[in-house]
């Protein structure tokens, strides 16, 4: 599970692993829905027969689908929680690399390390976390990102 700290203790977590989320199965149904919402219907994502003929050997999740799961992973074990938080918002990424494709049917999870914290205003903290999305039984991660979130306490 992720950690919960007081606002005064946030800086003490820099460099520490915050947590690891539960595994999440990537289904063809969810990939198809993502394709519909984003209008990205490339066959490698939605056509299992055609995708089987590619080096991927089957359909793969969109890179941005995998990236969009960061919020889910943060809420389910790999996010740092601050006591008294009113809200948190996505602030973007400084670095993002898609390392390995995620085959449909795979299970993925997030792992987070707090890299930096800036108090922008009293009670307003900008977190930089290194998030790794791991694929079950695969040596390489799906992605590595420096993810920025603004937390309002």
TrEMBL record:
Signal peptide (UniProt feature, chain positions): none
Source species, domain of life: Bacteria
Pfam families attached to this UniProt entry: MaoC_dehydratas
Descriptive protein name: MaoC-like domain-containing protein
Every MaoC-like domain range: 11-121
């Amino acid at each position: 599970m992720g950690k919960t700290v007081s606002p005064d203790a946030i800086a003490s977590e820099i460099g520490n692993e915050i947590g690891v989320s539960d595994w999440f199965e990537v289904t063809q149904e969810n990939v198809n829905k993502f394709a519909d919402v984003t209008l990205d219907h490339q066959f490698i994502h939605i056509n299992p027969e055609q995708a089987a003929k590619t080096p991927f050997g089957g359909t793969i999740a969109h890179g941005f689908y995998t990236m969009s799961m960061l919020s889910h992973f943060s809420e389910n074990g790999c996010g740092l929680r601050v006591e008294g938080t009113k809200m948190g918002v996505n602030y973007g990424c400084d670095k993002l690399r898609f390392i390995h494709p995620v085959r449909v049917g795979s299970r993925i999870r997030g792992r987070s390390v707090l890299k930096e914290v800036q108090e922008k205003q009293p009670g307003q903290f900008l977190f930089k976390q290194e998030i790794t999305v791991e694929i079950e039984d695969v040596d390489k991660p799906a992605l590595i990102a420096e993810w920025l979130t603004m937390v309002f306490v």
